[in-house]
TrEMBL record:
UniProt entry tagged with the keyword GTP-binding: no
Compartmental location: Membrane
One Gene Ontology term, aspect cellular component: membrane
Record has Repeat as a keyword: no
Membrane topology: Multi-pass membrane protein
Pfam family of the protein (one): PHO4
A GO MF label: phosphate transmembrane transporter activity
UniProt name for this protein: Inorganic phosphate transporter
Organism: Aneurinibacillus migulanus
Transmembrane segments: 6-24, 44-62, 82-103, 110-128, 140-162, 306-328
Keywords: Membrane, Transmembrane, Transmembrane helix, Transport
Major localization class: membrane
Length: 332
């Protein structure tokens, strides 16, 4: 069998594995608040999240195309198949490390940093598509701050509107409303996160000479959506514990405000074809909601640990991918 074909098969397998891992790694983002407030049982929440993730994943392709040609030129990248393979190995490794320690790091940062690092190792800094790469970085950096602000505003608005309502009845109503917001959160997650694997598979197909356009093949869309859905069904309880309870003590109204805020931002990014970190957006929304309720109620020590992980993920994954690329070229 041709070496290039073997590499493409390996890349497709690893890309789907990345989507699977992304599914259970980021399941917490969609359902952590609804589980922690007991709006949904864990089993029901995971089934719903898996279903909505799948539906979201097959609905759009704009983010996938951005991943395909926004970081590097897929038609000109040197040793493109090996670059993509190194990037996937690096991103998966970082995802598993952070999952093991229960740290809600960004799969998006890991993947994008890994693609950039492997491409730089292959052909230097000129291999990057700086216009697209900077736009992607801006969306990754700015979106958590917007989420923080929107979470604060949303919670403040809820507090103002419902301040004279019966607390028990209001919480019961928001607990029901959280079923909708959790479903919306899962759907928006699928529209953005699953497309990253679609984009990297298409990038590999172009680099390997198996495709001549940036259109996302139907089989790639369906397989990535299935991998994300199955991964979601596995669940990520360590991260659910961190996101759902360690940042702040959540009540149904807090969970609904956080879910609604983050869903709007993620879906908005999908509509303009930009990848964002669902982990960053959800965690920042919760921090914003907590700050609106009571600044001291947010456990800023946990938040600081999450932020540090955000900051180090891109450079570490880039460096790791560069090293993996150099090792792979010794054998290929």
């Amino acid at each position: 069998m041709d070496t290039t074909l073997i590499l493409i098969i390996a890349i497709v397998f690893l890309a789907l594995a990345f989507d699977f891992i992304n599914g259970f790694h980021d399941t917490a983002n969609a359902i952590a608040t609804s589980v922690s407030t007991r709006a949904l049982s864990p089993r029901v929440a995971i089934v719903m999240a898996a279903t909505m993730n799948f539906i979201g994943a097959i609905t759009f392709t704009g983010v996938a195309k951005t991943i395909t040609n926004g970081i590097v030129d897929p038609f000109a990248i040197e040793n493109g198949s090996i670059v993509v393979l190194a990037a996937l190995i690096s991103a998966i490794a970082w995802n598993l490390i952070t999952w093991w320690y229960g740290i809600p790091s960004s799969s998006s940062h890991a993947l994008i940093g890994s693609i950039a690092g492997a491409a730089i190792a292959a052909a230097g800094f000129n291999s990057l598509n700086y216009t697209g790469f900077i736009k992607i970085l801006e969306s990754l950096i700015v979106s958590p701050f917007i989420a923080l602000a929107l979470g604060f505003v949303m919670m403040s608005l809820f507090a103002m509107v419902f301040k004279n309502f019966n607390l028990t009845r209001t919480n019961r109503g928001f607990r029901t409303f959280q079923i909708f917001t959790a479903a919306l959160q899962s759907y928006s997650h699928g529209t953005n996160d699953a497309q990253k694997a679609m984009g990297i598979i298409t990038l590999a197909l172009i680099a390997g000479g198996f495709q001549t356009s940036t259109d996302i093949p139907t089989w790639v869309r369906v397989s990535a959506a299935l991998a994300m859905g199955i991964g979601t069904s596995v669940g990520g309880w360590k991260i659910i514990k961190t996101v759902g309870g360690k940042i702040m003590k959540l009540q149904p109204v807090n969970g609904a405000a956080a879910d609604l805020s983050s869903s709007l931002i993620i879906f908005g990014a999908t509509l303009i074809h930009l990848p964002v970190s669902t982990t960053h957006v959800v965690s920042s929304s919760i921090m914003g909601v907590g700050a609106a309720k009571r600044v001291k109620g947010v456990k800023w020590g946990v938040a600081r640990r999450i932020v540090i992980t955000w900051v180090i993920t891109l450079p570490i994954s880039a460096l790791l991918a560069g090293v993996i690329y150099k090792i792979l070229t010794l054998f290929m």
